[in-house]
Amino acid sequence: RGMTFDGQHIYGVANSNTVYCVDLNSHTLVSTFTTTYGAMRGISYDPERNGFWVIGNWSGNLTLIDYNGAVQFTGPTPTSVSDLAYYKDENDVEHVFCFNNGDNGVYDYNITTNTMGGSVFNFSAVPGFNAGTSGGCHVGVYNGMMAFFGDLQQDPNLIGIYELRNGGGVGPTPGPGGENLNQLALPRE
Length: 189
Prior knowledge:
Blueprint: E1 2-5, E2 10-13, E3 18-23, E4 28-34, E5 42-46, E6 51-55, E7 63-65, E8 71-74, E9 81-88, E10 94-100, E11 105-110, E12 115-122, E13 133-142, E14 145-153, E15 158-166, E16 184-187
Antiparallel strand pairs: 1-2, 2-3, 3-4, 5-6, 6-7, 7-8, 9-10, 10-11, 11-12, 13-14, 14-15, 15-16
């Protein structure tokens, strides 16, 4: 259901209490671990805490677990979350973005203040949207910008990209002409 990258391996969850660690270079399952948290739908690596934010299948508390599955911290309960994305902004404020399957909004959990904020943007506004619902997401570099990537499950599936801030290093250039990222949507078959 959800995947994340810690700089070395991919970690995934499949609506159970198991986290799978995969090495994509060697195409092998490196390890697994379980957690008392329960079934997890979303997961995002937190490099500051060297652990994983997880969320249940459409419900449950945002929870930080370590590499052994031990619960480190329990946060608020967002609504209808399909996946999570950790993000540290230009002011060093840490967030976990919660991609909402009910309204396609991306809701902001501020780690420092332990508060759940409102929607920072909504994928229903992405060009090409046709009644899809949220799927997976992550934060990464695109065309030299830190960006939020989200999958809208529709026909055909649609990947939307929202700029978060300048910087973050080198990344792929969007579109055939290098268009601006403000609301670039890439169709996916």
